[in-house]
Design goal:
By secondary structure, this protein is α+β, with helices and mostly antiparallel strands. The chain starts with a helix and ends with a helix. Bound molecules: methionine sulfoxide (SME). Methionine sulfoxide binds next to helix 3 and strand 6.
Length: 155
């Protein structure tokens, strides 16, 4: 199956599993697990950084799959912080060439970060995916992950 088809199936699977679930943590955890499983080993770190309600311009690590993640990332810092600030997806083909990249694990070579909005259209989190491969992410990943994130917090 082509990757676009895999993403379409994955979106349906995630939505059926979290349907009616009121816990956002349960939604993030289930999505992180299924996305990581679907694209292992290309995806070696898959997880969410959530906007801290007590510090609205700071991200705190949420559910993830992979090696130890950094705990907190301010807006405008790193790939996650800039994606949160701009509310835009960022694809990084080579993290060595991304000014201000935050290396939680030195094995990361490339990365994609996708914003997640709540039902009111407010930024709630970012999905961060790392790979040990250079240039591991393209527009198929972008569209697939954006589609999954667009519905993740919508009951
Ligand atoms: N590399 C990210 C930080 C999170 S780790 O990859 C899990 C960044 O630059 O924002």
């Amino acid at each position: 199956m082509d990757r676009a088809g895999q993403y379409a199936d994955l979106k349906v699977e995630i939505e059926s599993i979290v349907a009616g679930e009121t816990s956002m943590t349960a939604r993030y955890a289930s999505a992180a697990c299924l996305i990581a499983e679907a694209f292992r080993p290309r995806f070696f770190w898959t997880g969410f950084y959530v906007v801290d309600p007590l510090k609205p311009f700071e991200l705190v690590v949420g559910p993830y799959q992979g090696t130890l993640g950094c705990l907190r990332i301010p807006f405008c810092k790193g790939v996650c912080g800039i994606a949160a600030e701009t509310c835009e997806t960022i694809i990084v083909p080579d993290v060595e060439k991304f000014d201000g990249h935050i290396a939680c694990d030195s094995k990361t070579r490339s990365e994609i970060v996708v914003p997640v909005f709540d039902a009111d259209g407010q930024l709630a989190a970012v999905l961060d995916v790392d790979s040990e491969q250079l240039d591991a992410f393209d527009q198929v990943d972008r569209s697939g992950l954006e589609a999954i994130c667009s519905r993740l917090l919508i009951a």
